[in-house]
Amino acid sequence: LPCSPESHIAVGQGDDKHQESRWKVIEDALSKPMQSSWDIEEAILSYNPHYAKRWNFDGLHQFFDPSGNSGGADRAERALYLRHTVPAIARLVLNLPHILPGGVPLLKRSRPHTLVLSQLQIACLLANAFFCTFPRRNSTGHGTEYASYPSINFNTLFQGDRGQRVLQPRRAGKLRCILHYFQCVTSQVPCGVVSFERRVLAQAPAWQTQAEVLADVFLSDNGTIEDDGGGMLQADFANKYIGGGVLSRGCVQEEIRLLISPDMLVSRLFMEVMSEKESIVMVGAERFSSYTGYASNFVWAGPFTDTTPLDKWQRRCTTVIAYDALVFHNKAAQFKTSAMLRELQKAYCAFSAAHNVPVDQRAAIATGNWGCGAFGGDVYLKAILQLIAATVAGRQMLYFTFGNPELSSDLLALHAALQSNDTSTAELWEALCAYSQRDGHAVTGGRHLYSYLHRRLCTGVSESDTSSAGDTPQSATLPVDSALSEDTLSLGGASEEQTTAGASTGAHGRTGQDAHQAADVTDVHTSPEQPLSPAAATAIASEVPPSTGT
Fold it and tell me: Is 41 a catalytic residue?
């Protein structure tokens, strides 16, 4: 940490150059008044002199531009943030030796471990990240000390977009999320706790012998995981370096999730890059912001009041599971058995539960098009792989297609056919492996994959017949009452060690009924055989109690 007695910095010039306590330089810099973004830059560079000619703060200057012509803060925002928020962040930085006297351990690869931090400790660490105080975290090139860790200092967030004289909406939205978070935590001391678990898959299931019939799947064409996945394990489509481009240009699913719930941002300080059989589980993060848009159109849309109840360890009953997908530049490569196995094991590592949690008390998983988009994944394949992993993990699945009704109807139809045929996960995995062995030109994925699986597993058609593309299986026709009801999917949550009592408090502080209506259940489809059990719908994966703290 920057307050370590062993941390020093070279100050002065020529004959006057000498080593001085890094923390003393930080204290001197942050004790001075700050009335503009230029004062922030000057303070940061005073204890990061090596980067004076390498870092640019153009984005920060554009945000606080007094003219108001650079796409940044308006007059009221500038007054609030510069007069109150930024000085409060500086004071929080200087409290680091008192708030975290023992330091923070690193959670290294291949070592399962849980770290517990209070929200106040997290706020203090993020305040230090805002003022870029963490030593030896600015060089991440190959062979450097922290090459296998994400960046944590905020200097990349403050830089401008090349060639842009006006702040881009995405970067302005990010800065508003961060500054609003600090305005909240410095105005009222947060009292919650957040746990960060590094989960390692020691022994993968023998997929070819799993006899489970596929778990129930519920599909939504609209909505988001964070808004409509209350009470479930909420997927973070992660980069192997947790947070991905959250402190630079990235602004898709994972980055947005960490921006609206900045408690999770601190994981970048101590969480080493994920290996192939690892995932990260974060329980208790509070949401502070609302937003609209996505990627380059991301916009901060105002404060969010998080009324999620607390568990017995004072964590909010919100569980986020971070698991990274492979990047595919060649679409066909993802259908190789080795690639599918890697993705299956990664998802299972994220979805798995402690052995002492009964299956009927395990939370459902709220997920979607994991590893698709920029990562090049096939949405049809990724949905099936996640379904297999969820089934073997003993969980049901709520799948958000993010505006893809074709995928929704195709997956629903295939799932209904496979369930009615009592198809096991082993049989489905075997069929996927057989698909991967076909001639390259026949491995096209998409709807063709589902047609192949339907023919092979549900119609008894021979392998030679499944070599043709065929038709996508006919979509199942659902009765009107098959949409999820208030009784089958409550948007509140209790931990898996608790009963479902008191779980009607919904997202945005609405009652379960109001939240259910707002979620637009006409967009949620379900196989008519079995509803999602209330215990599974309202529980969350608070399965492992905090084991260590700082």
Answer: no
